[in-house]
Amino acid sequence: MSIAIISCKSDTKEKPEQPGKTDIEEGSKSKSKSSNEVISIITNAMEFNTKERWKSGWKTIKYKNNSNETHFILFDKYPEGKNLEDTKKEIVPPFQEGMDFINAGEFEKVGEAFGKLPEWFQEVEYKGGVGLISAKSTAQSTIYLDPGTYIIECYVKMANGVFHSTEGMNKQIEVTKADSSKLDIKADYVINIDVNNGIVFNEMVSAGEKTFKVKFGEQKVHENYVMSDVHLVWIDEGADISKLNSWMNWADPKGLQTPSPEGFKFLGGMQEMNQGGTGYFTVNIRSGNYALIAEVPDPQSKGLLKTFTVK
């Protein structure tokens, strides 16, 4: 099913760009060659363990998911005066109520639940983050953060349909002004994504530690409240890609819900940004089949599912 939702996001100008490198294979060592700050975020269950005050500029985020579930990290820049308490009181409850109605098949009540979201929610800006990463794995992304108040969140769902954010998987980070605008990262490949062309990626990828640059063109808000993002997924031989395609929509009763579809491993990626945004993610690639996919309803029909093979 789909939910028609209207939201407005303010555009952001493209920033200068910066580094970050690590691999995601279990037991491997980081090979970061960049000069920007690397910040660690660790999840052991349903929490984000990291420092609460960061400096502005390009940040390389190394996310270690020690839990038994798939997670991601989305960076939400909040309007002035709003913080985590407002999230818990005004944002999380309407989303969970709406999801509960979806799970119960009471679709006529869904719009009423989401209608309880406050007007200021439309002012939230999405600044990228770390893409979906499977259990017991590590991912790394590099994004630019302006000064301000951020809420980092994961809204993957537990097996009972409850969002991870409802269970406390959100954290406030204060970003203070600093002179940190230089970028020294070197991208191996470029992914373009926009509303008209979907994911555009025609590169011949080779094995090894690789950095992907994601450039966001024109965006729109899809039926499930989100704009387009990019997640890298390993595909087992014979895996049913249609199951992955269906799972990427949180507004579907079984979408973005534990367990994640069999035959796929999430390797990180770049969360959504406004038009003009740029982010990076770094992965240790091995031979096999992969997909780049967005977390939207039926991404394949929108050109937001792209497969490729590494030999």
Please tag this protein with its features.
single chain; about 300 residues; mainly beta; seven-stranded mixed β-sheet; about 10% helix
Word description of this protein:
With 311 residues, the protein is mainly beta. It has helices spanning 84-104, 110-114, 241-247, and strands at residues 38-43, 53-55, 57-65, 71-77, 125-133, 137-145, 148-153, 170-176, 189-194, 198-200, 208-216, 230-235, 264-270, 278-285, 288-293, 305-310. β9 (189-194) and β10 form a beta hairpin. The longest helix is centred in the N-terminal third of the chain and has 21 residues, at 84-104. The chain is globular. 41% of the residues are buried.
Short description:
With 311 residues, this protein is mainly beta. Helices cover 11% and strands 34% of the residues.
List the helices and strands and how they pair.
Elements (H helix, E strand, L loop, with lengths): L37 E6 L9 E3 L1 E9 L5 E7 L6 H21 L5 H5 L10 E9 L3 E9 L2 E6 L16 E7 L12 E6 L3 E3 L7 E9 L13 E6 L5 H7 L16 E7 L7 E8 L2 E6 L11 E6 L1
Task: Tally the structural domains.
Answer: 1
Estimate percent helicity: 10-25%
> What's the number of helices?
3
Mean pLDDT value: 90
Give the overall silhouette: globular
